[in-house]
Amino acid sequence: MARFRPVGSKGRGKRAGRPQGAAGCVVLILLIMVGVMVFLYLVMKSNANG
C-alpha cells in the first residue's frame, strides 16, 4: 500500500530562508514611513499659530 507523506517532508534538510528581495522591501517601507512623517511635520509646522 502506498504511503502518503506530508507536503513539506521532502526538503527537510534545507531550511526555507527569507526571499532575496525581503531586505529591499523593508528598506522601501521604512523610507515611505519616514517620508510620510516628514510631510506631516512640515504640514503641521506651516499651519502653526504664531
Describe it for me?
The chain has 50 residues and is mainly alpha-helical. It has one helix spanning 22-46. The longest helix is centred in the C-terminal third of the chain and has 25 residues, at 22-46. The chain is rod-shaped, with a radius of gyration of 24 Å. The model has no long low-confidence stretch (mean pLDDT 81).
What's the number of extended β-strand segments? 0
- Mean pLDDT comes to 81
The percentage helix is 40-55%
The largest sheet, given as strand count, sense and whether it forms a barrel, is:
none
N-end to C-end Cα span: 84 Å
SSE string: H
**Radius of gyration over alpha carbons?**
24 Å
Beta percentage is: under 5%
Backbone shape:
rod-shaped
Uncertain residue ranges: none
Given the helix and strand composition, which structural class is it? Answer: mainly alpha
How many individual helices? 1
Features:
50% helix, 1 helix, rod-shaped, 50 residues, mainly alpha
List the helices and strands and how they pair.
Blueprint: H1 22-46
Summarize the structure.
By secondary structure, the chain is mainly alpha-helical.
